[in-house]
Amino acid sequence: MSRLNFKRRRAAGRGFTLVELLTLVAVACLLLNLLLPAVLSSRDKSRRSKCANNLKQLALAAQNYHDVNGALPAGQDACNLGYGFRVSLLPYLEQFGLYQGVMYEGFEKGVRFADLDAEVKTAQIDVNACPADPGASRIVGGFRPASYVACYGDFCPNVAPYDAASPRSWVRSRGAIAPKTWTNLAVITDGTANTALFSETVVAVPGASTIKNGVATGTSSVFGAGFVLNSCMRPGFKPQVCLTYADGANYRPDVAVYQARGSRWGDGRDVFSAFSTILPPNSPNCSLGGVGDAGGNPQLLSATSHHRGGVNVALVDGSVRFVSETIDCGNLTGSTIGVNAGLCSYGKSPFGVWGALGSCNGGETGGRSALDDAPSLRSLF
Questions:
Q1: Terminal-residue alpha carbon distance, the chain
Q2: E-assigned strands of 165-289?
Q3: What separation in angstroms does the CA of 306 have from each of 50, 51, 156, 213, 369?
Q4: Residues paired with residue 84 on neighbouring β-strands, in sequence order
């Protein structure tokens, strides 16, 4: 064997040097850093797309409900039993058997949703769960949660017991969905393509105090004083103050937080199933007083998600848009809010593009407000 061939064989069997190994590691890390954001972005887009598809199914179910009943579902029932719009939509989501069980064993017998059998409270309805939210698949406190909430418009009402003898004593919301009353599409004079119907909420999990899934309670400085039925009509209502209860992604340590957002799939009370187009997406949630099972205090509730930069919103026409956290929200300081007792009851929204998207007949698109002229539809649920 020649000396040249011997050297070649020795060179071929030699391993990497330290310098070569470090170079390979550096190249691998560089490639990982370059590819990881793309992979994460692709995964986020996939989850966001799935979430948007769920919202679209809910919007189409609401349209089918309207075709059959002549109105969109109420946010919650007028009998104060805690049944929400998600229960009303069950037959239009291929869940008629569950709907019959809930209505026969619960609603028709005067049983509150919170007191139903465990089998009902933990029923799995895939369309209710956003894949981007890890809390959406967990059963907490005996309830299966839901990732999607109804739009009450540029409005955060105190849902007092409904008085059928004096309906004007009760104030409905400005959104396409309203608690304890039903909305015909004829009322939506701003146009079905310009009015929000559903959006997302980050589901509450035990021990979490993030601004997305909890509600800061006892925040009287947000709501001012006076008429209690509608926070927008209370002199001193200052939505921006709610933002001061946050410390980054969490609430301040001195703030009492109630973890409840989206935590009961069929419960129609505000904290479980509603949001307002006042504060921008992924903002904190605030309540005048305690929340609890009563849920009777005015609550300023935001649309929230785990998607980067915003939330998915389903419109009344069935389309779905991604709304950025930077959307225009008009004047949140309260300087022009509460002066007119009718503000947020009629007319253009004071809360910018976001508020206009929530109000169903504010006239921001040139349509005529017809809410007061529309017939009440209280017999549907």
A1: 95
A2: 196-200, 214-216, 246-247, 250-251, 257-259, 274-275, 286-287
A3: 13, 11, 23, 11, 35
A4: 76
d(C-alpha 235, C-alpha 345), whole Å: 14
**pLDDT score at 91:** 96
Length, in residues, of the chain: 381
Query: Who's near 128: CB < 8 A, 6+ residues apart?
Result: 54, 86, 136, 144, 145, 146, 147, 148, 265
| 8 A C-beta contact, residue 74 and residue 88 | yes
Report the pLDDT value the prediction gives residue 209, as an integer from 0 to 100.
74
Backbone angles phi, psi at 157, to 5 degrees: -75, 155
List of residues 6+ apart from 265 with CB closer than 8 A: 86, 121, 123, 125, 128, 143, 144, 145, 146
- 296's tokens: 């009777």
Evaluate whether 245 touches 265 at the Cβ level (below 8 Å): no
Tokens in use for 252? 């301040």
Q: Where are the alpha helices (DSSP H) in 70-170?
A: 85-88, 96-105, 118-121
**Confidence at residue 78, expressed as pLDDT on a 0 to 100 scale:** 81
Beta bridge partner(s), residue 258: 215
Burial of residue 323 (CB within 10 Å: 0-12, 13-18, 19+) is: buried
Beta-bridge partners for 313:
321
Query: In the block, which residue shows the tokens 């003898």?
Result: 165
Round to whole Å and give the CA distance between 255 and 174: 29
**Helix, strand or coil for residue 151?**
strand
The mean pLDDT values, 10 residues at a time, for the chain of 381 residues are 49 62 74 59 71 96 96 89 94 94 90 92 94 89 94 75 43 80 89 95 85 89 67 75 93 90 91 93 89 66 93 96 94 60 65 92 61 34 34
Query: Which residues, in sequence order, are CB contacts of 218 under 8 Å at separation 6+?
Result: 256, 287, 288, 289, 290
Q: How far apart are CA 162 and CA 142, in angstroms?
A: 28
pLDDT at 160: 52
Structure tokens at 276: 């307002």
Q: Which residues pair with 149 in a beta bridge?
A: 199
Residue 227, burial from CB neighbour count under 10 angstroms (0-12, 13-18, 19+): middle
Residue 17 is inside which H or E element, if any? none
| Its pTM surpasses 0.90 | no
